[in-house]
Each structure stands twice: as structure tokens, then as C-alpha cells.
Predict the 3D structure of the following.
Amino acid sequence: MRKKHSIILLLTAIFSSGSIYATAQVKDYLSIPGSISFENINYDLSWSSHPAANYFKHEYLPKGADAEKYKQMLLVEFVEGDITPKDVVGAKLVELAELKKTNPIVNFDVRANKQLGEYILDFLVSQNTPDGQHVNIIERNVYRYKKITDAAGRTGVLLFGVSTRAYGDDIDQFFAFLKTNRVDMLRSVSGYTIPVIKIAE
């Protein structure tokens, strides 16, 4: 039980949106060849990380997109261990509930597919301008969590996520779009065929 608890604490930090981009070689830790196609757009591996022995993270952007000011990003993450999607979602919900205490824009909703044992977490976060007077970034994330065994027999939780952002003057339009089209992304993510992974040795 102690081992499982420590994994959950780790997930609170690592299964989150955004990254610290550094000048480092991008490695395909998950053995996903080529680009990933989502909604008729190709996304290339733009950043990867292996911050813990059992955790791997990939981020994908359309060709030419700016990592620091992206409009849409794909995420594929894997944590190996004795843990369930429900555990991961629970840890993330605790984090978001804490954020909402100081940021009323933060919002979240979770949906379970009991037949497949999967969860979809849909959440909204924001970042203010340095003076704190205006919202500078709005970020909507749709995360799909599922229990998998990779091609080499390693078991854990896989995340496939789509992160969408708007900046400055585009934020009002972004909210208006969400109001009428929110479910479209939920359908796209829930119905997406997630790439088969294999942890690179």
C-alpha cells in the first residue's frame, strides 16, 4: 500500500499540463514511430522527458508551432506500476480543487467509461499577466486515462491528452467557442485510437 501511495503522490505532480522546455535532444521513449494524426492534423514529437524510473512523457506539436505559445498540443504519457486510472484521476482532481480555491476560472469535469475502465478528465486552467490584472492564457485540457500493458509486457496507466490554448485578445472568442462546441473534443478524444507504445530500453 505504501508503494501505491507514493506513486499517487508522484502522479499529482507529473500528470499535469504544460512543460519546461529545455535545449535537449528529444528521445522517443515510447516507441511511437513518425507523426501522430489527430483530427486530420499531423503532430510531431517536440519534447520528451523521463523524470522518474517509471514515468515517461511525450508532447507533440504541428510542424512549425511555437512550443511557448502553442494553440493545440497532444500528450502521451505512461506511468508504470500498480495503479489504476481512477487513482490518477483522483489525484488530479485534488490538485484542481486546490487551484480553484484561488482561481475561480479553474473548472473541471470527469467522466467514467465503466465498460472500458477508462476516465476522461476535462479541465480549464488559466494564467494571469505579471501584474495580476488580466488573464493572459486560457488552457483547456481533455485527458483520457486507461490501464494498459505495453508491447513489452510493462503494465501501468497511459494518458492521451489534448491541450488547447488561447492568449490575450483571443480569450473571449475561445470561451464563446467552448460554450457551443465543448463536447466535440470530448468525443474526439474518447473515440481516438491511442498509439501502441513500447518503452524503449
Q: What stands out?
A: Strands lie at 36-38, 41-52, 55-62, 72-80, 107-113, 118-128, 135-149, 155-167. The first strand starts at residue 36 and ends at 38. The longest helix spans residues 171-191.
